[in-house]
Amino acid sequence: MMPHPIVRFAPSPTGYIHIGNARTALLNFLYAKKHHGEFILRFDDTDVERSKEEFAQAIEVDLAWLGIAPHAVFRQSERIALYHAAAEALRGAGRLYPCYETAEELDRKRKRQQARGLPPVYDRSSLDLSAAERAKLETEGRRPHWRFKLDQKIAHWSDLVRGESHIDCASLSDPVLLREDGTYLYTLPSVVDDLDRRVNLIIRGEDHVTNTAVQIQLFEALIAAGSGSGAVPGFAHHNLLSSASGEGLSKRTGSLSIGGLREQGIESLAVAAAAVLIGSSVALHPVASLDELAASLDLSQISRTQTRFDPVELAGLSARTLHGLSFEAVRDRLAAHDIAGYKAKAFWLAVRGNISTFLDVVDWWRIVEGEIPPVAEDAEFLAKACDILPEEPWDETAWTVWTNVLKDRTGRKGRALYHPLRLALTGRETGPELAALLPLIGKVKASARLSGRVA
Ligand code: GLU
What pTM was estimated for this model as a whole? Predict the structure, then answer.
């Protein structure tokens, strides 16, 4: 039986998250939601130079906007003691060894290997150093970096997206876990935290497939060394998104940042639907809630190839998302713009199908409730129309009753009948059904507008 899933999203707070990062976060969050599991937000901030608290905070704001509420949040920078203990356990087990090559020396080695047609795999020469040789290098002022000694075997896992997967670790360099300055690269802290927090499924981008082979060995080594009790988690590697022009997304691609999309008025639910459905075998469609999206989530439907992300398609999806939102779903957002009271629901239902971003409601509310400058295209015709406005109360039939009489009296029809009315009543060439707007505008305003007065 599938255990209660514990998943995590682990961004480095070195920039703002973009749609590709949000996709990883959403796949994790929705998976946990669907299976009643837990979602942890972990900031991978061991790179002290590049990590910034302001980015961590911005990421939390972006996730909250998307509707992602983590069960727990923590930062790796607060947990260094755990990583030291794990490194010590690996040293004790003979799996972490000091290396003294400089970056230039490593580069020369790689070039020599390439010239001979060999793969650029680290040759483990530091592993052969005697204690005396190491001591000599240290007296010369060299500080070691530390590599994890891989077993030369094949790592296997059953990937929830990619199916049975394997990587031959003999083709990989022993990964550096600790830098010369004693700081950790991403690889070890991630495994230590996943073990400590009992993460049992890692859903991340396929750029991490090689890390997975290495990390499976690290999980096994730490468990064997008694430095962690859990088990090796399951893995799911989703395909990556590229920009519409085919380049990879980066934290610098401002317009596709989540904050940028929010500022453009894109609906968060549309971002979520796009993030989950783009790059899967399910066609892009608007959803009414994250619960609906979670219920339909199926990791095995994610495609194996890179997918282009088209912002124009997202804008269209965002508009279609708005068109289907119930009044209850937007009540608070409308109220935040002072759109409240007995007309608010009818107003929303009248305008939702005609807006492309939520903020468009502000203009339409002004048209219904506020004042607009007069636009009289045909004063004589409008005066006739005004004279025969029916008595209130008005419902959606008022418009048809009124315009039918007007049609008979004036002989006008089609655009000649409707266009001057729309222009006078709303100040706009196009917009929501007048049958729905007219009762909201009401007779006092309608008469004034038809008579060319500001109302
Ligand atoms: N900090 C890593 C990243 O942003 C996390 C990868 C992982 O999920 O293990 O790529």
Answer: 0.92
